[in-house]
Amino acid sequence: MKLKVLVGLSALLLSALSLNAQEMSDEEIAERIKPYGSVHVAGAVSADATPAGPRSGKEIYEQACTTCHAAGLLGAPTTQVAAEWQPRLDEKGFDTVWQNAINGINAMPPMGTCMNCSNDDIKAAIEYMIEGI
């Protein structure tokens, strides 16, 4: 007896839900089932990661690099501090430092946190960070 009641209630609930869905427009249904967020896989290029256009090294730094490089977070060389940058530049050279920023090194992911930067943007940001050294 309980099983029949349970089956009956389930059928009634499904009927009500299907009637409700039939009354909704396609736009309302699309809005109701749209994703709440998205997932970004490190290293993957997202569809909206198009270059943002010409920006100065300072602008790129302020948007994407300052979090780690202003405070030296996780071993990042601090901006415009010669004692932290010069040994890297002397040992590896600018081009290697630049390629490490593009490809990622240690705790730094590829392209840092700038998913819409070009390689030249990364170069400009590094040039800003070592300015005056």
UniProtKB/TrEMBL annotation:
It comes from the Bacteria. Residues 52-133 form the Cytochrome c domain. Keywords: Electron transport, Heme, Iron, Metal-binding, Signal, Transport. InterPro entries: Cyt_c-like_dom (IPR009056), Cyt_c-like_dom_sf (IPR036909), Cyt_CIE (IPR002323). Pfam families: Cytochrome_CBB3 (PF13442). Residues 1-21 form the signal peptide. This is C-type cytochrome.
